Queue: 3 jobs
Job 1
Amino acid sequence: MAPLVAVTRSSCKLQPAAAPLHVRGRRTNGIHRASAATCMRLARRGAVTCRADVNSDAFRSPYENPYREFLPVRSSNSRSVRQFDYLVLGSGIAGLSYALKVAEYGSVAIITKDYANEGCTQYAQGGVCAVLDKADSVDSHVEDTMVAGAFLNDRNAVEVVCREGPAQVLELVRLGADFTRNNDGSLHLTREGGHTNRRIVHAADLTGREIERALLASARAHPNVSFFEHHQATELVVDEVS
């Protein structure tokens, strides 16, 4: 059995972030490691501006911080370790969906670099394709998708997505996603380019935000799911144990 250990660090947002469990964390001000309290004091004095650490290795400042000597480095003894059965990096639609599934079998840690709702999912607008109209068919959806992809698509993958799509959309509804509906209460379906039938489920033009809201609410309410916002993974360590 080879357990996974994620080594993370939390970003200074003028708010101390909780130290992770199954994840070893160290706080940073984006350039130099420092305690959150020290970072906050210097910020109040106008000496340094605390900001989220967005891939500091790729966007490291070429300038030395003149207050570096006042920013003590935490020793490894201050790191804490917590154990989880499942580790999820990212809190978008994929990460949250997976977390909710495996939470039925064990504890889950979700690590995200910003607030949990901040990510690509909430900015998606159009909608989700699924065959939910009796006049439509999965075969038609498959053909539309193959044509739109100039038949370069993996047909097996296309068939799986088109066949399982309706159940996944209804699962989102069960989790609380409030999609736009017709007067009779049925889901309102629109038609977009490449589709020969109406099969786009949407929440006005803020579909991604509504899906993220519903998944996030379900994940936060689950007793087996823990969130570590303003953290990022820096290493993934695999240890062989007997």
Job 2
Amino acid sequence: TESNLNSSTVTGQIGRPGTAAAAAAGSSPAAGSRPATAPPANTTLPGDPDDPNQYPFWNVRRYRPLFNVDTKDVVWRVGSSFLGPLKPDFMAVTMASPDLYGPFWVATTLIFVTAVAGNYADFIAFKSEQKAAAAGGDAGSIHERQWYTDYAKMSFSALLFYDYVFVLGLALYFALRWFKSEIKLSNVWCIYGYSLTIFIPMAFVCIVPIGWVRWLVVGLATGMSGLFIVSNLKQTIYDAAPARALMLLGIIAGIHAALGLLLRLYFFHYRGAPEAAASG
């Protein structure tokens, strides 16, 4: 009897060759293979400590991916922003990994650079006015005046650049979402923030007390940065609202032109200087 049971057991196992193998395969994965339920290497599961979406919106750890860039990334993005319309693929390259590190520091740097350069250029114009008055025999009236640092330039530049990047970017985002666009707010902020990079060297050049040079430099910087914004947002806008794309692009370009004009007339227009009176 024991021999028959052993024979039956062996026969049953031999008659179903796939049963044991299937059970073994289902219970333990092959060496070096990834289980079918494992997530991709570059994703996080809900509840994972590395998942930023588990944190509430007021927790800074939720926005950690927006600052997860290295020097190589930032240098490439800054350099690309200088190329204006020659770099229309900036949006495509940064679509999956926009950052706010670069836009925040570009805007912050521009606030200080513009205010300092504007005040220093104003000081140069004031000294030129003193020399011209002394040469004309009217030194008394000019020496009664004193030059002072205009700290209002600092606060105004902070209001201007932070609002331009983040408030105007937010308004454009809501407009695009109204037209059912899938663009993310971080993508819009990334484009607008990096577009201002070219204004940093422009501010230093505008210290030169020559009116037509200032107009030329501000015009070139405004045109290049404006074309950078338009060329990168054009496809997204046409996909979302083809019937109103030209109107939206025109509004974007017009607001950007107004930014350049404001920079020229407020920060780099020196009232009272002989050169300013002659050439603006």
Job 3
Amino acid sequence: MIFHGFPSSSYDYNKIWDDLTKMFGKVVVLDFLGYGLSDKPLGHNYLMVEHADSVEFLLKKLGHKRYHILSHDMGDTVAQELIHRQNKLTEAGKKGELEILSVCLMNGGIIPETIDMRLLQKVMLNPWLAPIAMRLSNRIMFKKGFGEVFGEKTQPTPEEFDDYFSVIGYNDGHLVTNDLIQYLPQRFANRDKWVGALEQTKIPLHIIFGPSDPVNPHNTFLKKYKELVPHSGVTELPSHISHYPHLEYPEGVAKAYKQFFESWKRNEASKKQE
């Protein structure tokens, strides 16, 4: 199961899709409500718990009970909520209808105190400035804001910028940006629950990290993550890779994720032999 981030969509995974389908019998992907090709209701209260509910509903509808998670950015927080739910069941000695087998995170503000928000994010969180900015949104502004979270050497091509702009703007998507970005305050409000989920979980964890990320700076985020979640594996990509590693360095992400998945399979085989 793969989760995209803000402000994009499941299209973010197009460069590693073939690698994922070779690794797994089935890959399930969705555009969360408000994103990509999904409905984008104006004024809706977009909650991370609702996104997590959507994931669980979809998996049950498809008849899948056990699953792996690969997530990025806002999708990391959806993963945190799902991990929290499974932790609670485990603590109570119960087993739910669904079971997370492993979680691999990518760059995202999962430790809120380490986030360095971009100017555009701050504008979109402002209730007075956001409506103006959303209506003035155009390709030039989008390219500048979106390009800031890519490395200097790994910028999208002009055609890719157009693709992302089109998908984000589909069905007047630019008009719900202020609603969607409220996931950031939710991270701070639920910090202990969601960071605690990573600290406490027994689910195998890994993170694939682009060190040039301006939103989640290497010297603060990764240091704090290793301190809080020492049981997690870490793959640090080359220094020029930034916030969108699966778009900037797809072959490196695919290799790192495959290594994590193969390690998980070996551990599972070893448990069965005990």
